[in-house]
Each structure stands twice: as C-alpha cells, then as structure tokens.
C-alpha cells in the first residue's frame, strides 16, 4: 500500500497535515528524521504510516505507560496490530506478548526506554526484523530540555547493538535549537531530515491573571467550564492534594494525580479522567506528557511553571482536536519563590558532574526569568512564546489577554446558534423562561402540552447551568442580536442572521469576573439535537468497549457527522477521521441512529 491509501484506510484522513508528508517520504527513503511539531499536529502519523508500509517491525520508545496504552488502544481500534511491553503487564501477559512478537504478530511495539537495557528484550530484538526505531518525546534525552530522563541516553547504544541499523526517527513538540542539536547527537541520528512546522496553535487562547485569591478564581473557571474536560496543574503535591480535597467537598467532578500517590491510585484516577468519568484532573507535571486525549477544553495553571517549554507543552494538551480551548495561568509572586526553591534544591543526579549541575542551575534560573516575563510583562503572550522557540511573529495575535487587556475573548458562536435557532423554531412566540426550559431540556407541563420537547433544540444545552443560559440571553438582548416584545417574547434580529445561517464566528470580550465558558468548534448547519444523540451513543460504545470516547470518534468528527448526516458507508467515509476499519466497527450503529433521527431507511452497505 502507498502512504495515502494507508492514511485513509487506517486513520480516516484524505490529506496530510503540514510537515507530515515530507517526514513520511524521508523515512520511507530510509533516511533518519527529526520532527518538531506542536501537540495535536499529528506526530504519531509520521511514524505510524511508514511502520505499516515497512516490511518489518517498528519499535517506539515512549516515556510513559499511559501514553503507550492510549496509543496501542487507538491503533487496535484502527485495525493495526500493536502492543506495548512494560511493567504493567502480568507475567502471563508479558510472556504472551513476547512470544507473539517473536512470531512477527505485531507491526508496532511500544517500549519504555529502560526496557532497552533488558537482556530478554535485546534477545527478542535479535529475532525480529526491525525496520524502524522511533523516539517519542525526544527532548527527554537532553540535559538542556525541560524534562530530562537519564534512561533516554540508553537509546543510542541500543540502536548500535542491533545487527542491522534501522531507520531512526525522533519527535517532540518542544525543543529549542540547542535541544534539537542534543537530540540528534545523543540518539545518534545520521544526517536527519528535519522538519520544524512551527509552534503556533491558533485555536488556543492564552490568558494570565493575577487574582487576589487563586482558589476563588479557580472555582469561577470551573463553574464556567462545567460539563467540559480540563486539567489544573499545580507546582507541588501538597497543592494538588489540598485543591482536590476542597473541590471534592464542594461537589466538583475532580480527581488527582501526582508521583506521591500509589501507582494503582494514579492509574485508576487517570482512567477516570481519560474515560470522561471525571471532568477535571488536578495534577502536578507528573501527569500528561503524551496523554492522547483530544477533548480537553481548558488548562488552568494554579502555579507558574519554571520555564516556557513546560508551560507550552502542558498548555498544549488542550484543543488537540482543533476545537477552541483556553489556557489560563493564575500568577502570584509566591510562584517565583517556589520555583527558585526547586532550582536551589534539585533532585540529586549522580550522573552529572558538579560543573554540569551548576550549568543546569544557571540555565534554569535564566529560563525562570523568561517565564516570569511572560507572566508579568509580555505585550502579546502568544508572540512571546513563538519568539522564544525561534519564530518571528507578524503583528500581535489579538487572541490572548496580553492583547485584550485584563479580561479574555471567548468564542460563543455555538451558544448563540443554539439560542437563536431555538427562538426561531418556536416562531418567536415564547419568552426567555420557556426558551431556557427548552434548551435545558426541562419537561415542564407547558413544554409537554405544547409539544416543545419535540423541536430539534430541546435539551441541546442540558450540560449548561440555567443561570448561564440566562446570561447568554441577556448579553444577546443587550447587544441587539435578539429583542423582547411587550409580552416578553423573544425575536431574532437581522444582526444575528450571519451567525445563525452563515456561521459567522461570534467572540465576546469579557472581564475576568464575567467570563463564559468557551464553545466547541462549530460547523455550519450542524444538527445540534443529532450531535447530542451522537455523543450519547459514543459514550455508550466507549463504556462497553472500555476505551476513551475520543478513540471511537473525536468531537470534531462527531460535529462533521451531525452536519453531513451520512446515511450509508460511502457518505460516512467522506468524513475526516472515519477509516474503513472504524466504519466497519462502529459505522452501522451510527448510521442507524442518523437514519432514525432523519426518518430515513437504513442503507448501510451502499
């Protein structure tokens, strides 16, 4: 198969993203490769496509067990034979995977860097035809990176120990020029083909606020983001535990993660978040590297990180599916003191000389100063980060709190479309209380008697607090998108038509004390009621299959389905993110639901 056939059949996409095709071509020409691509840019495809074309096995070196599990789950859903080898396997599972690997049962095998020094694994590699070794999160090999892992230094010697040198590819989302040079040297890349696609994530809104009370500010954000998935990062385990206890007691849907918890508890809590059983995870930086969860809508840093690289990578875990997401940093001067304490009291690393330790200390202080400038003085937050990574921005972004002042700008297009559509569907003959009940899905006597529970917008804002819906309506009244007649009935004005019918984006600048939650990425003419049904079906399938919902279809794919409304296989496969394998596994039940929704006959096979 060629690269484009593999892309469509296994991953469900018609075209490559920026940088992907060039890297894939280089790898298929047996050249080493180095890809620097932001989170959500599709690094995995760059090595997974060649892995399926190469005759032998691809070994992927990955730093975290959770990342391996997510990646392998995703590959299995696509019909790709993959496995991971790590300490979470039982003795029987380990023996089975090793035996199958020796027989050539897998195309892709994920391993931790520590495994590369294991005699049993080295012996296994001697029995396999290894076409490629891929290093994920490659910045971990560098002392000058923000997440140095000594075990990554084993990779070069492992590659050199193989009887036949495979293609070697390395990928990371965050690497300055110095770190990139380190990666190439320490992994042993030979004249690598290098692609740096750029670090900008236009769908992310960056914000720094300096609240008098961080906890009060955090609660306000969690209230506004109710019903959505997010991560709250803390600088210490103590802060993580305290926030978790307080928020749990107040009824928030939260769990926690840090290295001080027993492994079984960490794994359990992570699964709660990954599988959407808890909306928010409170965590230290021990959580998240490589977490393949596409529907994270917000990241809040309760404490300032120690460097731009860490902040960019952690914030970049939001909006992986392309939907708009918010990245908020709650800053206070005490954050600087805490980070300086970490620098002056590092974890002892006996592998480094005193001179190297002093160089690292000086470098960390320099990086901290740049992070402090971002948090306190940067005129444009996005441009400051892009400049840090060596890019030259053109003008201010107008999509961060540095450009917009002390508040923030959020996308409220989808909320507007739901409210305007609801008012239209009741023929502009109902007041705001009834509109709120319809959108919320409240089956009051009046709603049922007048069959208002049968219209398409019924329940489309069931996950939003009534007070929040009322605030939206008040805003649209105040800004003449809608009007209210003497009887109290709402009417959609001409000003709203571009938003409702032409998908014009509507953003609102808000003071930090009056912030609405960000909307999902809307699509023109999306059937909002169908979208709700699709999400419920996806959640049921995910629960039955014991996989995260986003592995079945991402939110972006569901929005496309709710817009196009495919009623057969041919139409379904035209949607980005739907592969042949995924359609065969999930397509029929989705087609059945769509046909029932549209009162059409099911014709799945056509």
What is the first-to-last residue Cα distance? 24 Å
Report the C-alpha radius of gyration, rounded.
25 Å
Enumerate the strands of the largest sheet in spatial order, edge to edge or round the barrel.
3-4-2-5-6-1-7
**The CATH class of the largest domain:** Alpha Beta
Task: Give the % helix.
Answer: 40-55%
Largest β sheet strand count, sense and barrel closure:
7 strands, parallel
Overall number of structural domains:
4
CATH level-3 fold name of the largest domain: Rossmann fold
Q: What's the number of extended β-strand segments?
A: 17
Overall 3D geometry?
globular
Write a structural description.
The chain is of the alpha/beta class and 606 residues long. It folds into 4 domains: 3-196, P-loop containing nucleotide triphosphate hydrolases (Rossmann fold); 204-407, Rossmann fold, CATH 3.40.50.300; 413-505, Arc Repressor Mutant, subunit A; 528-598, DNA polymerase, domain 1. It is 45% helix and 13% strand. The protein is built from 26 helices and 17 strands. The strands form 4 sheets. Strands 3-4-2-5-6-1-7 form a 7-stranded parallel β-sheet, sandwiched between helices. Strand 5 (130-135), helix 7 (155-161) and strand 6 (167-172) form a beta-alpha-beta unit. Helix 22 (528-545) crosses helix 24 (555-564). The model is unreliable at 511-524 (pLDDT under 50).
């Amino acid at each position: 198969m060629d690269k484009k056939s593999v892309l469509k059949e296994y991953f469900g996409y018609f075209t490559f993203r920026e940088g992907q095709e060039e890297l894939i071509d280089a790898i298929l020409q047996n050249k080493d490769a180095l890809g620097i691509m932001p989170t959500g840019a599709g690094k995995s495809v760059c090595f997974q496509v060649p892995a399926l074309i190469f005759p032998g096995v691809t070994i992927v070196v990955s730093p975290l067990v959770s990342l391996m599990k997510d990646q392998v789950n995703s590959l299995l859903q696509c019909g790709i034979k993959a496995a991971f080898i790590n300490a979470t396997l039982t003795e029987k599972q380990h023996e089975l995977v090793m035996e199958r690997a020796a027989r050539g049962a897998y195309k892709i095998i994920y391993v931790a860097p520590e495994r590369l020094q294991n005699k049993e694994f080295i012996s296994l590699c001697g029995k396999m035809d290894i076409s490629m070794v891929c290093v994920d999160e490659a910045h971990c090999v560098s002392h000058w990176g923000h997440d140095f892992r000594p075990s990554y230094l084993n990779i070069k010697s492992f590659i050199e120990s193989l009887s036949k040198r495979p293609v070697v590819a390395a990928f990371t989302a965050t690497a300055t020029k110095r770190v990139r040079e380190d990666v190439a040297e320490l992994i042993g890349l030979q004249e690598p083909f290098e692609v740096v696609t750029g670090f900008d994530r236009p769908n992310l809104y960056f914000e720094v606020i300096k609240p008098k009370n961080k906890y009060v500010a955090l609660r306000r954000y969690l209230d506004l983001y109710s019903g959505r998935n997010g991560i709250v990062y803390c600088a210490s385990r103590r802060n993580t535990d305290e926030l978790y206890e307080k928020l749990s007691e107040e009824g928030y849907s939260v769990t926690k993660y840090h290295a001080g918890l027993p492994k079984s508890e960490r794994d359990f809590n992570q699964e709660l978040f990954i599988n959407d059983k808890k909306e928010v995870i409170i965590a230290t930086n021990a959580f998240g590297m490589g977490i393949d969860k596409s529907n994270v809508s917000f990241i809040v840093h309760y404490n300032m990180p120690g460097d731009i690289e860490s902040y960019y990578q952690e914030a970049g875990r939001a909006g992986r599916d392309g939907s708009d997401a918010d990245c908020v940093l709650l800053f206070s001067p005490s954050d600087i003191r805490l980070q300086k304490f970490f620098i002056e009291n590092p974890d002892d690393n006996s592998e480094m000389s005193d001179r190297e330790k002093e160089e690292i200390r000086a470098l960390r202080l320099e990086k901290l100063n740049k992070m402090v400038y971002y948090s306190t003085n940067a005129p444009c937050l996005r441009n400051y980060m892009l400049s840090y990574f060596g890019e030259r921005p053109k003008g201010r972004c107008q999509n961060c709190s540095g450009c917009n002042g002390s508040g923030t700008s959020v996308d409220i297009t989808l909320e507007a479309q739901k409210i305007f559509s609801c008012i239209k569907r009741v023929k502009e003959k109902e007041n705001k209380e009834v509109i709120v009940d319809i959108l919320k899905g409240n089956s009051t006597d009046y709603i049922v008697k007048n069959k208002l529970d049968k219209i398409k917008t019924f329940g489309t804002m069931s996950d939003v607090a009534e007070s929040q819906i009322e605030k939206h309506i008040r805003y649209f009244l105040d800004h003449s998108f809608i009007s209210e007649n003497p009887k109290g009935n709402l009417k959609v004005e001409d000003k709203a038509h571009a938003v409702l019918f032409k998908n014009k984006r509507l953003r609102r600048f808000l003071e930090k004390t009056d912030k609405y939650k960000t909307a999902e990425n809307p699509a023109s003419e999306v059937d909002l009621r169908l979208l709700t049904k699709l999400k419920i079906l996806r959640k049921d399938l995910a629960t039955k299959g014991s996989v995260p919902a986003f592995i079945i279809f991402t939110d972006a794919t569901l929005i496309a389905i709710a817009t196009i409304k495919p009623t057969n296989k041919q139409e379904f496969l035209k949607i980005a993110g739907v592969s042949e394998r995924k359609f065969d596994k999930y397509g029929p039940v989705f087609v059945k639901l769509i046909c029932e929704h549209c009162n059409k006959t099911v014709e799945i096979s056509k």
